[in-house]
Specification:
The chain is mainly α and 119 residues long. The chain has helices spanning 5-23, 30-35, 51-75, 85-108.
Length: 119
């Protein structure tokens, strides 16, 4: 799918920064420039799914990935202290419940970051 002009321009800026950081002052190649003009997603879904639907599914999936990354960093899911599977599962469910409670409190406005109470 072809990007709009603004997205194309933003992508080109990002490419220039990446090239500078990784390769010194190497300019953006013609191939990079051409690839930057499109959104490329490879999928195994059939032809009955439209481009817009594929992009929407990808965006939803990406939001889920971001949520899991945030959970892992905030609640330290990488460091399971238990060795037994039942204990590890109980620990995980406890952390998941804590995350759900925190998310609910933040989203309902009962625990705003500014410290001010909302109605």
């Amino acid at each position: 799918m072809r990007k709009d002009f603004e997205s194309e321009r933003t992508g080109l800026k990002r490419l220039k920064k990446v090239n500078q950081r990784k390769h010194g002052r190497k300019p953006v190649t013609e191939l990079q420039e051409e690839g930057n003009k499109y959104i490329i997603i490879v999928t195994s879904l059939g032809k009955e799914v439209s481009t817009a639907e594929v992009l929407e599914l990808y965006r939803a999936r990406w939001q889920i990935e971001i949520a899991f990354k945030r959970l892992k960093s905030l609640f330290q899911y990488n460091d399971i202290p238990a060795k037994e599977s039942k204990s590890a599962l109980a620990w995980f469910y406890g952390k998941l419940l804590l995350a759900a409670l925190c998310e609910t409190l933040v989203n309902t406005g009962r625990f705003p970051p500014s410290g001010k109470k909302t109605r």
